[in-house]
Amino acid sequence: MIIVPKTRGFICTTAHPDGCAAHVQEQIDYVRSSPRSAYLPKNVLVIGASTGYGLASRIVPAFSAGASTLGVFFEKPPTERKTASAGWYNSAAFEAAAVADGLYARSINGDAFSVEIKQRAISEISASMGPIDCVVYSLASPRRTDPQTGEVYRSCLKPIGESYRQKNINTDKAEVDEVVIEPASEEDIDATVKVMGGEDWELWMDALLEAGLLADGATSVAYSYIGPELTWPIYRDGTIGRAKNHLEQSCARIRGKLESKGGRAFVSVNKAVVTQASSAIPVVPLYISILFKKMKEEGLHEDCIEQIQRMFTNHLHGDAHLDASGRIRIDDLEMREDIQTHVAGAWEQITTGNLRELSDFDGYQKNFLKLFGFGLAGVDYGTECDPMRSVDLVE
Ligand code: NAD
Predict the structure, then answer these.
(1) Can you give the pTM of this predicted structure?
(2) Ligand 1 contacts CB of residue 76 (under 6 A)
């Protein structure tokens, strides 16, 4: 079939296997051409491993440290008539490159929140890998079924206390408009904490500990975001911010459980990048478009792979350089005062008329399409492409 992007808002229902492979290869090439990470884990479990920050967190240890990696994700396989989701193709490409380098790389496709998928991971680690020395928790999910009660919780992106009115971008029309979001109910807050808080991360760590499959000195990291004040009502002070606070509380508990074995747990605050998860957050795509323009001009632009390479190199080895709240900060360049002052000024002025002058909206859109394997150099999008690609799944 000829595969073209079919997008609406922050959804793209098609993905290009060769384009996704080219995107993964770009990231592998970046890691290979970077100085070798000082932190060299041997056995890595990445939960949320198929796209965005999780995929980068699988690529860096594999291609910098030669690590074995088990990836857990929830992706749609292809059929003869329909493409797979991008994360499926990314994982197929990652595995092919890892195996070509003689590395162990297998994957589990299913609901990471479930007991069954945790058990499947435990069995595979026990049979094929041996104790895990690095666990990356990088899930971004709209819902979670509680493994004990079966109750389904849906996360939401809402302010707390009062409604939030802010500039926004209609990405389909390239128009700056306004969004008004009504405040969350207590139920919304609790549900978002259930889905995006740290409960499930802790359950994964408990399961590994109980099975005796965490190596002495193991490190675990999960990701958070803080960002600029203009997004705080919808992010840091909103429902998702409550979930991230919970993630930090879970981190402290996990750290306590690992300490006796010399292990460590961190929350890393990462910069805003274009991913399937971030493109769904109101206001954020317009902020990212302005931010990218300035960071590119200053030679500071980073995507997931540069961020995670920097985290492994500068923070996970030895002294982790934590902020006053005990978090790793790789959002340091985004949050630099000169960058934020510039973004705040441009934010005040931006309209549909000056969108391309004040922001890198075209770059944002290119980045978004790239997530699905479109717009990659060297890929012939005009020729027939077989959508079937296989992933080495642990069943
Ligand atoms: P993403 O959408 O690119 O990736 C989400 C991953 O989770 C995918 O691998 C997906 O398959 C997996 N997943 C979702 N539901 C699942 C389930 N039920 N079972 C198994 N796997 C499941 O997201 P991302 O932006 O890379 O976000 C990852 C983490 O990074 C999140 O905690 C997010 O808050 C954080 N973060 C993101 C940004 C950003 O700008 N994107 C910035 C800072 C921190």
Answers:
(1) 0.98
(2) no
Cβ–ligand 1 distance for 75 under 6 Å, the answer: yes
Q: Look at strands 264-269 and 214-224 and give their pairing.
A: parallel
Percent of the chain at pLDDT exceeding 90: 96
pLDDT of 320 above 80: no
Domains of the chain with CATH codes: 7-370 (3.40.50.720)
Catalytic residue among 235, 287, 364, 381: 235
3-class secondary-structure state, position 394: coil
Is there a contact between 74 and 359 (Cβ–Cβ < 8 Å)? no
Q: Is 321 a residue whose pLDDT tops 90?
A: no
Atom index in ligand 1 nearest the CA of residue 51 equals 3
> H or E segment at 294?
helix 284-297
- Give the mean pLDDT of the chain: 96
d(CA 56, CA 306): 9
Shortest CA distance to 50 belongs to which of 86, 14, 103? 86
